[in-house]
Amino acid sequence: MPTNSINRRTFLEFLGKAVAVGSLVPTFIPLATSYYKDLKGISPSQEDKLKLAKGLNFDVLVKWEDAISEKDTFGFNNDFTAFLPLEEGNSDDGILWVNHEYVDPFFVSNHVGGEKSKEQVEKEMYNVGGSILRVKKDDKGKWKVVENDPLNKRVNGLTDIPFNWDHPIAGKTSAMGTLGNCSGGVTPWGTILTCEENYDMFYGERDFKSGKRIEKKAFLAWHTQYDNPPEHYGWVVEVDPQTGKAQKHIALGRCAHECATIKELEDGRLVVYSGDDSVNQFLYKFISSEPGSLSKGTLYVANTLLGKWIPLVHEENAILKKVFKDQTDVLIQMRKAAKYIGATPLDRPEDIEIDPVNGNVLVSLTNNSTKKNYFGSILKIEETDGDHAALTFKPSLYLAGGEETGFACPDNMAFDKAGNLWITSDISGSLMNKEPYLPFKNNGLFVVPRSGPQAGKVIQMASAPSDAELTGPFFAPDGKTLFLSVQHPGEYSSGPDDLTSHWPDGGDNIPRPAVVAITGKTLDALQGTE
Ligand code: FEO
Ligand code: CA
Ligand code: CA
Ligand code: CA
């Protein structure tokens, strides 16, 4: 059993049968091969549409404010998605987890200035976190949320969530809610890791010298109604999709966690990779000392110049001992601790995927304005001897963004059954369709074929509606469905009469973040599953 409090047996029992651990999680089996001779992509587009390449179709599965049960509605700004089949071998019926990253007060709480009321703050709090949905293909092959299914529920900014740690965090053993839920991961035992990214926009950050809250970072100013400590946010949170029960894993450290990508070692211990998506911040990995534990183990930070993982252990490091009180303090102020011990600043690490064929670790580095790196790149980490527990690695450039490759600002990634790499882009809304991003137009979804004459090329497969970003790509285990979030369409609308997007409902409707299910013969052909 894992040492964490979410019970693996409960989850298996709920499935009603004994399932081998690991079979719940859509793991890649490199059997499918595709030799797509002439995959035709789409050109960049400025249209307010979700445009797809030929041979792909989408259904809007769920959108902001849709009722998912008698008491709950779907949250705002959907990001990471994860599909977990309810039965082994059935990719047409399962649980869909969806992250809700942040809110746009203009749409969510109708706040346009002045102090927010408690009701407005609570409305915003309710709309972040995550949604748990039972989703199923109907007789016509169309994906639907199963209305009022007992599994449907929300985790949000008001949910009480305990810390998985021996010591209190800012004097408490639990936090009010989770927020900033950007990307994430799936554990080998079928729970979800949801990552608290830009946590400072909600409750600000602590000035650890004065002990005061830095309020200017708290754009959403939730602290004006709830005096929650900033230290309670910026963690990797585990959620059991059966019960909605959650816990915050302190051992993985505190930062603007983009994602948490797990590799289970042969002896059952875990390696978790996670990046801190902030300019010139770092890449981390946690190696557990016990099988299935996300609390016992060692946290490391990457020095990509030396190809070394450096331990962030208070007791073993004279500098850390001098500057920080104890290990809890090191974990709360992880960025500062990592900087002291020689971590290498990176160009905003976003999603991390492990190549299922060769074990290479790919890290999206989205861009770095301070280095005039506008288009970003994908970093390849080859762990020594292919061992994810190695403490040395070889870093290299895997793919560079830019006009030559046709994409800019890589963010989320996913591998399909044939080992093709899918990448989404995240050009900031304030810069989209402006220099130097003009040629790329709206954000998109791209595929890099693994084999065939187009191997290694970047081909655009989707273009997002106005101001939106495509996020959270996740394949059903049979590869026949790609779940995808459309986040923040119309974010730069200046008022109700000047909406920049009306997606997905069209007409005069307000834009709504939504999750779509993509299917079609191009998806099948790419993976050799047609
Ligand atoms: Fe929420 Fe780093 O993207
Ligand atoms: Ca992201
Ligand atoms: Ca991913
Ligand atoms: Ca991003």
Short descriptors:
530 residues; mainly beta; Neuraminidase; six-stranded mixed beta sheet; 8 helices; binds MU-OXO-diiron; binds calcium ion
Q: How does this structure look, described?
A:
The chain is mostly beta strands. The chain has a single domain (21-527), classed as Neuraminidase. It has eight helices and 33 strands. The strands form eight sheets. The protein has a six-stranded mixed beta sheet with strand order 9-8-15-14-11-10, with no helix packed on it. The longest helix has 9 residues, at 118-126. The chain starts with 7 loop residues before the first helix and ends with a helix. Residues 1-29 have low confidence and may be disordered. It binds MU-OXO-diiron (FEO) and calcium ion (3 copies). MU-OXO-diiron is lined by residues 101, 182, 197, 258, 277, 350, 411.
Share of β-strand residues: 25-35%
Mean pLDDT: 94
Q: Low-confidence spans: pLDDT under 50, at least 5 residues?
A: 1-29
Look up the CATH topology: Neuraminidase
How much helical structure, as a percent, in the residues? under 10%
Strand order of the largest sheet: 9-8-15-14-11-10
Q: Count the E strands.
A: 33
- Determine the CATH superfamily: TolB, C-terminal domain
CATH architecture label name: 6 Propeller
The major β-sheet equals: 6 strands, mixed
Rg value: 22 Å
Class from secondary-structure proportions: mainly beta
Per DSSP, the total helix count is 8
Domain count: 1
Bound molecules: MU-OXO-diiron, calcium ion
